[in-house]
Amino acid sequence: MTGGEEMRLTVIGTGYLGATHAACMAELGRSFLDAGAGFGGGCLPKDLRALAAVADESGSHGCAGLLRQVDDINLRCRTRVADRVKRAVGGTLVGIRVAVLGAAFKPGSDDVRDSPSLAIAQRLSDDGADVVVCDPVAADNARRARPDLTRPSGLAEAVKGADAVVLATPWPQFRSLAPRSLEGLVARRILIDARNTLDPAVWRSAGWTFHAMGRV
Q1: Which of 71, 98, 110, 120 would disulfide-bridge 138, Cβ 3.0–4.6 Å?
Q2: pLDDT of residue 99
Q3: Which residues are catalytically annotated?
């Protein structure tokens, strides 16, 4: 990197980037950036892309490229979750019922803009799965955003007959799930924790096939 590029990056970092970081951290918190299905919402992805454009305009093409790589990696996280589900159920999603727990882009919100949870649900549906999406707050917004996806009345209805359960938005009621709460409801004991919030040992000891992103 040249001295000029370093100077331009410093200006960006103390201006737009600094303000964006402060705003996003105040709204989202550190936990929103944990590994898993990636981030979403109406703020951070948009600002990331805008910052890349500002970096390009200022001549900091290396910085712009890095930011676009971050965006690309984040979007691929969603695909990785859908692929993990597909492998877990045997390689095909045709005729497979999947319960996706969560529609909002983060817990405590009804915002489904650029939601990783809905993106995962849509990918599963596009690959032939019968997808049911459950969210305690964002169900109405999810219905408007993805009217083709099934909306159950609650968690029990969502997981009933499911071949796989995907924890996509870490709402407290999903984070506190215990294997016994789903017994007798699911068709197969397969759970994909896309947010790394559950204890793998607890679920595996209860006879579940448990997958978590970034974990063995």
Answers
A1: 110
A2: 97
A3: 43
Give the pLDDT confidence of 11-45 residue by residue, as tens digits.
Answer: 444 444 454 455 555 555 555 566 689 899 988 88
Single pTM value for the model: 0.82
Q: Which residues are CB-contacts of 127 (< 8 A; sequence separation ≥ 6)? A: 82, 86, 93, 94
Report DSSP letters for 2-38, one per residue. -HHHHHHHHHHHHTHHHHHHHHHHHHH-GGGGSSSS-
Which helix (DSSP H) or strand (DSSP E) does residue 201 occupy?
Answer: helix 200-205
- pLDDT value of position 149: 87
Listed in sequence order, the DSSP H helices in 33-171 are 44-57, 61-88, 116-126, 139-145, 155-159
Q: Residue 192's Cα: distance from chain center in Å?
A: 12
Dihedrals φ, ψ of 101, to 5°? -90, 105
